[in-house]
Amino acid sequence: MPSYKYLIIGGGVTADAAIAGIREIDHEGSIGVISAESYPPYNRPPLSKGLWKGKALEDIFRQATPGNAQLHLESKAVSINPEEHIVVDDQHQQYNYQKLLLATGGSPRRLPFGGDDLIYFRTLEDFKHLHSLVGNSAKFALIGGGFIGSELASILNEQGQEVVMLFPEESIGSLIFPADLASFLNDYYRQRGVTVLAGELVNDIDSQAQGFTIKTKSGSSVSADHVIAGIGILPNTSLAEAAGIEVNNGIVVDQYLETSQADIYAAGDVANIQNSLLDIRQRVEHEDNALSSGKAAGRNMAGKPVPYEHLSYFYSDMFDLGYEAVGELNPKHEIFSDWQDPYRKGVVYYLKGSQLRGVLLWNVWGQVDAARQLIRASGPFSKEDLVGRLPAD
């Protein structure tokens, strides 16, 4: 039985960051990684960004894992025995651990129709598959108007492909952006040549030899050669739940990222973390949280426990627009937009009463730390207080 001081289930960015965190404290302790993927840890953002714009494939792989951990690739952990400190994988291999990190991430939400013919974009293999389909005058239908849908729609359009977007919300990004900005994005994408079908709930997909027919609740139908479903992810919690670990919209952890079972930690997309600053529990599905929580979990596992209080950020690119965002972007909050150039450059503030909850830096760069500091400030804030508070230049 392989025996490790530190065992990590999951082979993504969180795992690599945890290895780096462990090695900051413990230079010798053995580390094992169980990963269902065929590849060592790699960065996911380039899959819908840089790899389409000339970034070399080899540049996406992470740096902490090589030489620091034993990788068990194409292996899926199927059970945990917290009392015996044993993990079993799908090849019946048993692993002993002293400390265990669950970095199991999430899996794409799947539609109840369409089967395996649909593309669910999450992994490097998904990127390779989608990339192989581009360039043959194909028509792509993207179901979903959120983070991955908006990115892939712009990327495929820039690759010269015909693209149609379908989603039930009123506008692209309306789950995080204020209504006027989200509405602008509908028109912006249409001007770039993307067909945007807002307010359309897909209720069936027929697959034929010549392509797909998408049917919506309103009675409309859309034909496409390929269909990509980008409707979010679900946290991979079944392994934890079967082991008796508390689960509630992710794996529930304390301020040190430890679960309800001793010596078992969780970090990254799968972890439900208490945000002490905003006084909410949340699961954050973005790279910065994966990196920061993974590293913190590694350090904590290695014996230097520090409360996790990082205020993470996320970012995206859409044609020639881009943004970085910090905190809680809830369009139901009171919103103040401090535009330098309306919908092209400015800062959007999300307020709950007099408390600043989130900041959207729209085509504004280099202000993430300043936005964090502003959210951490006690306030109270009024709209007048925020005019010009974060420079857009």
Explain this structure to me?
With 393 residues, this protein is α/β, with parallel strands linked by helices. It has helices at 13-25, 124-133, 147-158, 179-191, 238-242, 287-301, 368-376, 383-386; strands at 3-9, 31-34, 70-72, 77-81, 86-89, 94-102, 106-108, 139-143, 162-167, 195-198, 202-208, 211-216, 221-224, 226-229, 233-235, 251-252, 264-266, 271-275, 280-282, 313-318, 321-327, 334-341, 345-352, 355-362. Strands 1, 2, 3, 4, 5, 6 and 17 form a seven-stranded mixed beta sheet that branches. A five-stranded antiparallel beta sheet has the order 20-21-24-23-22. Strands 10-9-8-14 form a four-stranded parallel beta sheet, covered by helices on one side. A hairpin with a 4-residue loop joins strand 18 and strand 19 (280-282). The longest helix has 15 residues, at 287-301. The radius of gyration is 22 Å and the shape is globular.
